Amino acid sequence: MTIRRLTNSERPATSFPLQAYAFEASPMRAERAEEFRSYLPYHEATRTLVAEEGGETLATASAIPMRQNLRGAVLPMAGVAGVATHPLARRRGHVRELLRQLLDEMRDEGHPLTALYPFRASFYERFGYVGLPRARTAVFAPADLAALLRADLPGELAWGRSGAGYADHRAFTERCLAERHGFAIFPETRAVRQRDDDDRWQLTARVDGETVGVLTYRIDDHGGELAGDDLLVADPYARALILQFLARHVDQVERIRLRIAADELPELWLTDLAVHVEARVARPGSSAPMARLLALDALAGLPAGPGRVRVELTGDRWLAGTHLLDGATGRLELSGDATGSVPAATLTAAGLSALAYGVLDPAEVDVRGLGRVPADAAAELRRLFPRRLPYLFADF
Ligand SMILES: CC(C)(COP(=O)(O)OP(=O)(O)OC[C@H]1O[C@@H](n2cnc3c(N)ncnc32)[C@H](O)[C@@H]1OP(=O)(O)O)[C@@H](O)C(=O)NCCC(=O)NCCS
């Protein structure tokens, strides 16, 4: 078995059919093969490795060069996607091999972060990934938004098709990338698919010409559902402006469905709003994302509280050694100075990633077996890495 990197034009005959078998209804229509060619521009920046034997493609794994906000720093992130093995070649370790090489290459090319949606979380936990919150869906009736109809809100709305609104949408996701912990976006070559697909409506909220919120959505039928994608807003005024627009669909649709970040609490948006909030995690098909640090450089200079702790990193191919983490200056400093009496912890890559992404308390890292964290080290780590809820946004 050999592993090699595909050129873009090789995809339709190699990786795309494997991915279609793994992720789509099949056998596929004959025209599907034609459609593959039209996707190539969106994959220009994607790195795809394949495992081959006797000229046949056995397995494939890709990484999209993305960017992600980690506690305020915007860093290159490898978005792992399109992982699939031929049904006759599964359980032979092909994906394990591909992933190892793919992450080596992405790390060497300057991606200190990586994220993915796992087929099985435990498989990727052994690769050092830790779970992030899944985006929630909120479902409610437009009638319950009635109180907003009379509200006098700052700003105005623009409405049209998502193709025409793409530039505004992209610019606003760039703003979210700069401002929201965990937020990740595609490279431009991939993101423009939203413009070209042009298959949604788009609502854009603006105040004094500046975009403060966007929502793309579809309506399935009269009396049916208005299904929104992620509700992206800069503040509660922008959110109210968008909800006010949705309220005007009271005589048109029965339900409104929106994707929201895990830290949104729609039950507090309005009085008398009956709302169902759900995060469904199931295998296969509905996974919560995972992420990890691939390089310690990601941590240097991050805002941190005044903690001081020695961590020994174990069991990982990409993160190793003993490091002193110090937040005395308000920014995280790392050094190899491992002497002196400082509280000490042992962490796996998943354990350190859980703390950096803010998803687990040090005690949970200990309980989950992602390290050994004595109480004194836990107190220091808690100061260095206060809990934060990341919002990944990108779906890949
Ligand atoms: C999920 C999928 C990608 C796994 O690919 P794979 O090449 O079979 O993966 P690997 O062989 O590297 O690892 C899968 C399992 O087989 C095990 N395995 C590896 N070598 C093995 C061997 N010689 N004998 C038995 N099992 C083996 C691995 O350890 C792993 O199981 P574990 O996590 O319990 O240890 C493949 O089944 C697939 O294409 N599924 C459909 C699409 C899909 O779900 N894609 C992932 C979306 S992100």
From TrEMBL:
EC number of this enzyme: 2.3.1.-
Record's keyword annotation contains Calcium: no
Top-level taxon: Bacteria
Enzyme class: transferase
Keywords: Acyltransferase, Transferase
InterPro entries: Acetyltransf_17, Acetyltransferase_Eis, Acyl_CoA_acyltransferase, GNAT_dom
CDD domains, sorted: NAT_SF
SUPFAM superfamilies: Acyl-CoA N-acyltransferases (Nat) (SSF55729)
Annotated N-acetyltransferase domain residues: 1-154
Record flagged with keyword Transferase: yes
Example of a GO MF term: acyltransferase activity
UniProt-recorded name of the protein: Enhanced intracellular survival protein Eis
Organism: Micromonospora harpali
Organism taxonomic ancestry: Bacteria, Bacillati, Actinomycetota, Actinomycetes, Micromonosporales
